Amino acid sequence: MEEDMAESTTVMMASANEDTITGVEATLPSNASDATITTGPPTTSPTRVPLYKIYALPTPIRTFPLPTFYPSNPISLIHLVIVWLRQVVSPPQPEPSTIHVGVWDPNTRSVHVKDPGSISALWEQGFYGKGSLSRSEPNWMKREIGRRESTQGNTVSEERTEARREERRQAKWERAKTELEAIERQISEEALTQVEPAGDIVSASDAVLPPSGNSPAVAELESPLAEPEATEEVAFESQPPVQQAPEEAIPVMPIKEAVTAQLPVDHPIEVLADFSVKPSVQLVIQPKPPVGPAELLALPNSVTDLIRRPQAHEEPVPQIVEAALFCRPIVHKAPVGPAELLALPNSQADLVATSPQSHEEETHEEETLIQAKAVPICRPVESKSPIGPAELLALPNCLVELMSGSLLVKGEPKDFEAVPSQFQEAAHTLPTAKQPTAATNGHAGSKLVNGHAQPNGLVNGYATGASACVHREVEDNDASISETKPPVTNGACNGITSSILSDPASGAPETRPIQGEGPQLLKRRQSVLGEEAQPLKRRKSVRFSPRVVSTTFQHFDPPSPSRSTVSPPKASSPASSNGSATTISPPSPMTPPEPVTSLEPVTSPEPETTPDSVSESGPETYAVLKELSNKEHFQLAPEEAFFLSFSVGALSVMDPVTLAPIPTEDLLTLFRAHSYFPPRTVDSSVESLQPHDPFLVNYAVYHHFRSLGWVPRHGMKFGVDFILYQRGPVFDHSEFGVMVMPSFSDAQWTEHEHQAPRKSWSWLMGVNRVLAHVLKGLVLVYVDIPPPPVFDDAMKQGGIAVALKLYNIREVMVRRFSANRNR
Amino acid sequence: MSLDDDDMPTTAPIASASADQEDAPTGDEVLEEEIQDFRLFRKDKNISAQTIRKGEKDFESHGTRAQENALEQSRQAMKEVLSYTRVHQTRNLVRGWYFPDWWAEWPEKEDESAAGGNATQGTQEKDKRPFAHMRDRVVILEGSSVSSTYLGRAVTSQPKETLARGKDWLLPEEALYLVERGSLDLWWPTRGLEEIFPPWKPDVKDSEAHPESEPAATSEAEVVGHAVESNTVNEADEYDQGIPLSVQAAYSLLIGNDGERGKVSLQKFQVYSNLKRAGYNILRAPPLTKQCTPQTPSVTLWQWLSSLLPSGSEPQPRPYGPLIQPGLYRSYVPIYRQMVIIPRHKPSAAPSSPWLPEDPFSVHFHIWKAAPKWSKLRHPPPDFYLAVVDAQETGVPTFQEITALVDATPPAPGKPEWTGPGRMYARLKHGHRNALVAVVDHGIINYMRFAEGAFGEELLFERFDSRNAPRSGKGGGRALSSSVIDTGTLDKFSKQPSELCVSGRKVEPKDNNTLDDDP
Amino acid sequence: MASPMADRQVRISRIGGRYLAFDIEDVVYIRRHHGICAILMGTMPQNPTQNIFLGLPIELYAEEARLLIDKKVAYIADEATEHLSQLKTMDPTARSAYLQSLKMQRKTAQLGLEDAKAKSKAQYQRRAQTITASSSDNPNRTKPASSGREDSLFDSQPQQPAPVAKLALPAVTPTTSNVLVASGGSSVSIQVPASYPLYRFLNTRGYYITPGLRFGGDYSVYPGDPFRFHAHYMANSYGWDEKVPMLDLVTSGRLGTAVKKSFLFGSQQPATAIAAESANPGEDVRVFCIEWAGM
């Protein structure tokens, strides 16, 4: 009881003093409370507030429960009275106290909310919208910051997710491998002389022999099924050398390899950059010796080392063998069988990177991943401890991170050498990149130009950078951080420059040694190149991780500080359009700024991601924080928006053009009209709005469940109209998937033969199976729709509030009945 | 807790794989879904998932000889297994005769009422015997198998001199099923019934001797024994009275279109035998009695009004909202009350739909789980009510169809112990009435369970106040009393917060697969 | 098997508007030579209390029946009428022929029973000491715990072989009425669903096809005989201009991954719809596969 007293008093105090605090929040520590205030910042406060307190409000309305009266305890009565009096004297402003503001966006058919306060508030109150930058809870900002300041740059759950996928891939790959090996054995045992086994032997031998013969094998990969990865796989190649680095005792070694390996890669990368449809061309043309084995091996390794990253380097040879095995099925039968099996699991994650619509997310995700690899290295490098290939992967970017964070002396020599190496390969790039397809060359060409520029002008490269660094220090930091990921010629180069510059103090001295060292390094490298190529390549290819490929996509990051200055106008325009804050990544003149580019989704929805803010780069983080503007924007689905404004009155929707609030009545017609595609115009009598407008029907269902206290969310992800949460994703999995079934039982409908399209049984089985797979129950929600005349009368009489009464809703729970389980 | 978890279909299955999930197919079902390799068919054991799991399949033809051989063997195995001919050992031969039109003119009503007079019937429990569908019964069993517990029906209380008095008659599906499983030898009569079953057959006495309810297999055997003897001693005119029919012939005579008297549609037969094989007891559902028609509309109206009541008491809401009057609220209940505008379905004892079920969406079979004391004459109310539809000819039922079908079944509330928020999912998923629909796609059968849901019965918002009331830590038992909710909901939701803070799936999944364990 | 496979005419029995086949030779033949396995739907007399293995007859899709007819390797027989006509007015020759064949089968059955009995006796002796004798003294019957009630019903466990059993040959129920009814049948038109073109398209490319309902599609498609192979695709057929709801695509894609199949959907180009009936089948069908990216 004492506690109760204490609580209730605080309630009183709170509600009296600041009306933004609810009864609940009052009981929290003050810093926690502002996290929960509807107008507070989107971040959950570091001291972990119990979720059920953060997500206290089921609607944007707060209640002010009076403290309890215990007859046994007279004091409680006093509380009650006091609280009551306080609320009478200085009443909290009538609920809903906060009216959120959103802008109707006809293109996405959603209402955009940009104010971070509103976003988090709405999210916490069970309005999830069609989507947001963060795929789940809109804490993009927080996580972005977390990512940027933490060297490892991704959140716990991201890692967990990855780990999970990892395991899956591994398992599948293992299965496939064993299967294939079994078959191989069979075949060899039966000693059948068929085309297939013959093919194997060839490809197998290829693995070891000079590469030239392999380009066909690689070309084969551009089968309908595997086209995108093929290029991607090759792209992977860029990495092995780098990761290899520390294994060679000699500090110079890595760079040599870096050069050799990166030669072939550039074009695929360019291609991927703007989704040219025929990367295959590029690949096959590749005449470069190093290409062959690398590419061939790329396949198995990209997968294998997933499995045995830890002990990867122990037995390189067997790996190659299975590489051959692995190639075969793909080469001979593209879409089916093991090929498919393998393609499915492995390519899935990888493939996505190349699929246009989603590549952005993947890019991001994987980029963060690389940084994940970087974690170990940052420390190991300093303390010379043995380093597994996994960490080594990340060498290129971690280097720079080391620098951008006050960099350690050991790091330096390495990447100074790295610089010239970049130049050299830039030179190499030049000739071959002449023949990219029309799609590519605009992009590639331009790249080469400045790639080309650099060898002959080491100094000016830095000069520009230096000048840049003065006024745009912070941007450099951003740049450098994102920069470091691309292994691309100029990308990496600039990455280093900028990163050097980013620390102005050390910037000046560093430049000198590079200039001095660059040229002779070049020479030395060519010499080594010849001898070491073969053995190196084989071992190398065993080790790298396919993830590194993602780095290639960093094209979409702001290329280099010097360039980013060129386009302030471009930078601003998209910012306004879809709320992408371009201050971080201004679209470079060469990469056409697609809207996607600016989005940087985060894989993890984790609500309480605790960003391990302790990172080597102390000073930068603040700069980042300062500059990083919140790109998060929230797309309320029409149903949600209408519920908020019509039912709760906690949202006012603005007209995109006039920015004047749209009255609810017009909003309704607007939504109804846009629930058709193309949107219907209200006036045209023939195709005008109907009582069975998709929006109306869906809203009826949404409102129905919402008014019962359920939290409906759009279920597109699961192939259903809605999924129902009891409280919200933070607390429970949604237990039900809802399919809206418009129906026209009324006589007036039936006489006009108006029938809803009949869904097939197989459709139902499908939906049910999918839901069963994610442990949800299927609910068919039949909405019996009133015939037009009745509906129209109701609308005239009492508006939508009355008209909705006419919608008769019946839930039908559907489930497979298992004859075996129930007998 | 990763929120994406329910986005990843691959994370859930771990759970769903465990038989927790009702929807997750059982091992056997998985097998039934696949085409089975007859090499693994064993006729002397009960086939189980484990024994068959061994059958490894490939994803593509990789031209190994082993693969080809394996395939060849499988095909051979199939041929051998399927070439089996049904043999009836003389000692337990059961013979049935096909007399399609014997009961064609039979007035069904009479049969039902007449049943009451039967002395042997336990009068105290129920003196009305289940509907017999006599007109559809086309196969008469030789020997008196009145005691057969599960199949067939005899017309009792008939004058002694009636032909084949007390004989069991089979429905087409029953006959065909028995023929298929090799338990019945179906004959085509070349003589009339009176010659095959002369009035003075000794069995009559026999049949009287046996009280109908007693399943006496042994005596059954003897009886049949006699029968066989009587027509096997004279080998000569063995085929004098008729000739035995093949399975093909049986199909030809017994399978027909829906509604054909004395026949059964292939789909219905497939469902019937599928369930019989699975061990259920099945009877044809009696034809729908029309008694519910008149008052249904009034019921619905009343329903509709009653469902409106909560909002009805409120002042007329503003045409375009906001529904919720701005102001100071002490609890969420009044807030949510104001949102109620759409009528909520309220399940009631009386069927609430104005429509009557129409084929195919009408209950055709009554189904019981295997139970020791079950008999075709004495049995509890059905465990399941089943409609049979064709996957191609029909689609997902319409509003009318499904409501009519479900409302035609008696109320089937969930388990009494399903109270409190913890069991809400169980309650919801179970629903208030339910019917099964067997969707038949060329012999492959999917059973779907449609249940009358009533989310309106679960007022989630009532617990918000208890959730939000100031409380110490998690178990806010005391704090609850501060909120403005009736004590009924109080104890229901008292444990809520602690449960909710533990995210992920709680007890529900386990609950709802016990749903069907008792009707 | 003995019959030359080349010119075999498969008898497709049309019963109650469905298409069935009863002759094991036919079943084996169409499976081997025409990539049609249809659905085994009959109860297996050897083990009638399980649903995993099913026996004759098979039920054919309308599509399958149609395909066989178009290929001129099968004929449709309206069984109900044929049987009735045969049975009602049975001329002595046909009758004797039928009875003769019956006799044969009964003789073989007799032999079968003899050694079966011998076996079971041996078995019985073996099991004598072990307690588990109860359920399996009759090789033809099975008594799973789940349901053995029919046993208590018609064929009870043999206490001791009845004396009469010696006298008579055992009765048999032949599977087919081949002897009874004349082969060769009416050429009837077969209504095929709209998905027929897709079916034919896949079939002509050597895929085996079974009903896909369980997996949420029209067909599930195997790269070879399902005896040996896993299904590769869930196939759905759409109209050429049919609007495919986005939700359905999502479902399909997810489903595909869920059941480890890739989701295939196809349609026939309306323009060539008529021409295609005769000329190279399936050339006018376009198919696509979708796969859920599962990010």
UniProtKB/TrEMBL annotation, chain A:
Compositionally biased region (Basic and acidic residues): 157-168
GO MF annotations in UniProt: nucleic acid binding; tRNA-intron lyase activity
Any GO BP: tRNA-type intron splice site recognition and cleavage
tRNA intron endonuclease catalytic domain span: 695-784
Enzyme Commission (EC) number: 4.6.1.16
PANTHER family: TRNA-SPLICING ENDONUCLEASE SUBUNIT SEN2
UniProt name for this protein: tRNA-intron lyase
Organism: Lasiosphaeris hirsuta
UniProtKB/TrEMBL annotation, chain B:
Pfam families cross-referenced by the UniProt entry: tRNA_int_end_N2 (PF12928)
InterPro entries xrefs: tRNA_splic_suSen54, tRNA_splic_suSen54_N
Transmembrane segments: none
Superkingdom, natural source: Eukaryota
Keyword terms, alphabetized: tRNA processing
GO CC entries: tRNA-intron endonuclease complex
tRNA-splicing endonuclease subunit Sen54 N-terminal domain span: 80-188
Record region (Disordered): 1-28, 110-131, 467-519
Segment forming the signal sequence: none
GO biological process: tRNA-type intron splice site recognition and cleavage
Stated family: Belongs to the SEN54 family.
Name the UniProt record assigns to this protein: tRNA-splicing endonuclease subunit Sen54 N-terminal domain-containing protein
The species this protein was found in: Lasiosphaeris hirsuta
Automatic annotation (TrEMBL), chain C:
A single cellular component GO annotation: tRNA-intron endonuclease complex
Polar residues bias (residue ranges): 124-145
GO molecular function: nucleic acid binding; tRNA-intron lyase activity
Organism, as annotated: Lasiosphaeris hirsuta
Catalytic residues (UniProt): 222, 230, 261
InterPro entries attached to this UniProt entry: tRNA_endonuc-like_dom_sf, tRNA_intron_Endo_cat-like_sf, tRNA_intron_Endonuc_cat-like, TSEN34, TSEN34_N
Protein name: tRNA-splicing endonuclease subunit Sen34
KW tRNA processing (keyword) present: yes
Taxonomic classification: Eukaryota, Fungi, Dikarya, Ascomycota, Pezizomycotina
